[in-house]
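Q: What would this chain look like folded?
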Amino acid sequence: MARRTTVVLTSEDEQALQRASRAEGVSQSELIRKGIRSVTAAYRPRSRPVFGWLKLSKSEREEISRDEVGDYDR
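A: My prediction, written as C-alpha cells:
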C-alpha cells in the first residue's frame, strides 16, 4: 500500500529535481521513489535466488557469489 509523506527540499534541490524530471521525462515523485529505492536497497529483504525449478542451498549460493564472472570452469 502506498503512503504519502512530506519531504522538505532546499531551493537548490527543488530546482535540480525539476530539471532532472524534465530531462528524464518522468515525474518528480518517480525520481524521488527511485532515489529512495537506490539508497535503501541494502536494507531491503532479499529472496533466495531461484532458477526455474532449481533452488540453491546457502552453500551453493555462496560458491556462486565467490565465482568470478566470465571465468571458465575447469
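The mean pLDDT is 83.
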